[in-house]
Amino acid sequence: MIDSKTALAHCQDLVALAQQMGADAADAIARANSSESVSMRLGKLEEVERSESEEIGLRVFVGKRSASINTSDFAPEGLKALAQRAVEMAGHAPEDQHAGLAPAEALFSGELPDLDLDDPERPEPQSLREAALATEEAARAVEGITNSNGGSAGFDRSVVALATSNGFGRAYSGSGHMLSASVVAGEGGAMETDYASRGARFRADLPSEAEIGEEAGRRAVARLNPGSMPSGKYPVVFDPRIGGGLIGHLLGAIGAPAVARKSTFLLGREEDELFDPSIRILEEPLRKRGARSRPFDGEGVACTSRAIIDGGRLTGWLTNVASADQLGLGLTGHAARSSGGSPGVSASNVHLEAGSVTPEELMADIEDGLYVTGLYGQGVNMVTGDYSRGATGFRIRNGEFAGAVSEITIAGHLTDMFRGLTPANDLEMYRSVNVPTLRIDGMTVAGE
Fold it and tell me: How far is CA 318 from CA 251, 253, 254, 341, 344, in A?
């Protein structure tokens, strides 16, 4: 796989070729990835995978017309043909008054911060096999586990490079380690399955194989003999593993491209108190070893830490060049892009600050409610804010778990859910979006 220096050189060469072909402006992004994983099932080797990919994308501007194109052919002749084709395509594209490069004064400059994203440890296939086996064995050792979908261990490394015709050129690399297990509890028609997984930039930051495996086993056994519950309005508590999805809906709704298209339920509510005043949601793109850390965005703008929600209120939309120009806003460093197509927006390393009570205290006064551990279905309308998802989890009676439940639906409206959200104090920081246990009162549950 190419290194960051080589990837950046290819991007700079491609931008220069595009200008030679007649582009008024251009940028190029290169991405490379290598990964290796081993899966064990029932103590035997199930699968070994290794992959490598390298891709480079070019975006060119001819006046207000633009085109983007990508390839995995890094040969000089291939890059030259790519540049020529992109310029020709741009000449036939419609004009877009809002598209363009980030202005030079907004681009990241200076030395890259040390985000400590790249683990020098490169696991050998045998060590991955041993880790996968140990994870599965720990899961299978949990009483009540009757079968296994397997244990896995993996490692990957990635490179990102970006160059623009107005002087930006930077690259960075990162690594990732992964452990997971999925097992089955029960017999016959009463079987239930669940999983546990964890990823980290550095192997030293992963929990042990035993911890991951035991968690998978406990989760599967706890789901045995599920029932239902009467339909009605209840307090609903979200496990941290799935509660981050609620913040994901917020992030999707505050992207400036959605605002510009008028396709977000938060349009016109940017001054409202969306959450309780005690709620803060923060973004830390420069966090060391963060799952989504990055020094600059997909258009070369510097990424900075910020509060997304402060005092319960939104601090602003997340922009890229096109949406910022369309809405008359500044750049926020949230452009995101693959090697092909126009940039979108995304946030990096987001978390909702912890509350002051334990999860047990958060549930203590719930006479009858629901603790959600799994969600399925796509019933979230980002234009209206209507929310309806299939759910699994546990019924709460008098502040305690009172048996597993499944095949139920929870529903509400995202603005009401945000405003009624209460966090516990069990925040852990290892996902791309991290939340503690969350409680929302008055949600509709459809069960029996």
Answer: 8, 9, 6, 19, 10
